[in-house]
Structures are given as structure tokens and as C-alpha cells.
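job 3f2a | input accepted
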Amino acid sequence: MTFGKFGREENTLVSITRTGGLDVKILPRTAKLDGGSSVTGPPPEQDIPLDIPKRTAVYIQQTEREKANAVDMHTTFQQELVKLRLATAKAYMKVMTDGQPCEGKTGVLLLLLLFQGATSTSTASSASLSLNATVSGLGPAFKLTLELCNNGSQPILGAALVLLYNRQMYSAQHDQRQLPVLLPALQYHFDIRIRCLDPEAGVDVVKILMHSSKSPVPLLSALVKMPFSEFEEE
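job 3f2a | predicted structure (234 res):
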């Protein structure tokens, strides 16, 4: 171990390890070795006053109103929060009992529904499914891409996808598709070819249902609004 000049550096510590390695430590030229200040206490910045804006008349009136009606404002907030929770619970119960679908944007639908899936045991286990449906193409031929993911902790067996649509306007390559075992945290991709038979008739929706023999209601339902179709060139 040697301390001294090494190359162009004046303050360098050179040492050789037991394994034969060379270790070079260079002291910066701008380093100050006189030590820090021994004065302790709060920083000097605390003596600088903050630039606080002046209180306006509107601010004072609003503050006085909140002080006078604090109890009523808190009660109203709690009532609205309870109403929101009740509306959410009713919507969830309607999906659970009726399988009511939820409609998304044109061409793209992201749907996340929670359901109670029956298992081989006497107790029901909760699971979750996410479905992302994307329609691509200008028409009259479209491609419906489905991305299905099991977000639960248990695999789903014996599930199938069914497409319901107006057969006078559209024709699908596969109306029904038997799904493989949906393992947790895995994403499954399915492509379905859909053709518009009458571009002049406008647009319609395609209903996607996912059902299982173990559940009396659909595990998942969604509405995909099809885009307008271009006319086929002859």
C-alpha cells in the first residue's frame, strides 16, 4: 500500500490485494479536508419568511361557511358515499343474477367482472375474469381479437365462448368456441373472423357470452359495437 503521485494525480492510494488485484483510490483535487462546521442548530433558511399570499374576502367567507356548516357538510358527504356504495352493490347483484352485459366504446371494450364460480366442493370460491375485445379492419371483413385472462387463484374448467349477433347483417367464422383450462394469471388470445353481409344496413352489436356447465348464469357477458363497414370493391 502506497500513497503518493500516480500519473497526473497527486493524491493517490495504491494497494495490492492478496489475490494480486490492483486497487487505486484517487482523492479529488477539490476535496476539503479542514472538516465541517462544528456549529449545530437549525438551518439559516428558517429565518427567511415565506411568501404567503394575502387572504382574500372570498377565502375568508368560504372558511367561515365551512366552520358554521361543518357538521351538515360531513353528514351530506357520508350520505352520498352510502348511496354510491348502494348503487354499486345493486349493479353488481344485477350482473350476478341476470348476467346483464355492459356496453363499451366502439371497437374496443375492456370489461372486468367479478363472479362467484361454483367448484367441486360445497363452498363457492371467488374468481375474476378480464376480457379485452378489439375489432380491426375497414370492412366488410373484420377481425375480432379477444384477450381473456383469469385473474383469480383457481383454474376455470369447461368454459365456452358464444357469439350472438344479427345473422342478416353479419356472419362469423366460429359462433361457439370451447375454451381450454383457464389457468390463473395467464392471458389467452382468440381471433374470430366476422364479415358484414350488408354494409348499407348500418352497424349493430355483437354479444359475447362466456358460460360454464357449473354456473346457471353467464360467467361473463359483453357487447361489442361494430364499426361502419366499407363497401366491397367489385
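job 3f2a | DSSP finds two helices and 13 strands in the chain.
job 3f2a | closed
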